[in-house]
Task: structure prediction
Amino acid sequence: MAKTPKYIEHDMFRMPMGFSTEAYRSALNYSATAEDIFVCSYPKCGTTWLQNIVYLILNGGVPLGPDMRLPTVFPHLEEVGLQVCEKLPTPRLIKTHLPFFVTPWHLEARYFYIARNPFDCVVSFFHHTCGFPQHYDFLDGEFNEFFECFISGKVDFGDYFDNLIPWYNQRDKSNVFFITYESMISDSRAAIKKIGKFLETDATKLDKTIDQVVRYSSFESMQKYQTRWASPRIDAVSPFIRKGVVGDWKNYFSHDQAYRLLDKFLNKIQGTSIDKLWPDIVASVRHYS
Ligand code: A3P
Result:
């Protein structure tokens, strides 16, 4: 019988085991303030990378110290709940995987959204799900088993497309900054400049620190300091910063899986211009043999 990861369910919403119902419910009642800075995403789309860049820009290029953890200075709203976020210094830095319609909203708060193509996302999500047995009990799970959960939207934080599409539709709002993982990979310096501008960081000031921001947010640097990105109570068996490439899906997908996910992708994104985010990926899936 196929193995599936285990989750807990709050109000029809799947979350990793160990997340508390109270924290999740209170998160939905968090009142966003004008100064808040949210990093929003579907899991495994580059959230931690973007959080670290935001943190570095605001901190003048100085990285987290050896005893510091990103989830402490930049907590995950629905994991820690409202009270923890209310105690953060201003501007409050908050991560969330909540869908747009339930994300606490303030017209002047700033919302970053990072998107990643679903083919690489599911591969990364598979490794994540195997790598945190206390959250999913899926240590020996196989890609084929996880793929079925992902394509049917039966994974934590819901269906990939239910998260991406409503956020994509907000991308022209002045307080929303939409970026793709792939564009950050292809030119991280240019992405950092745009992120700095959205944060209203003085351009001259950013010019002086950008080399450090690039350096401390690089894959190599982040991979070296794995423990800084995960919450202290987490005991992972696989590295949080894993491979950091575009196109890893080809090492996992069967022909049939590639076509099935492409089919779902094309159906779901009808009426949007989402296919333009990843023309190369879509073309390579079409020609996958
Ligand atoms: P892979 O598993 O494909 O390597 P999230 O933070 O949303 O969980 O996303 C995790 C993914 O982002 C992982 O992808 C991880 O390796 C990648 N990532 C994290 N930091 C990165 C960096 N500095 N450069 C490139 N990729 C990074």
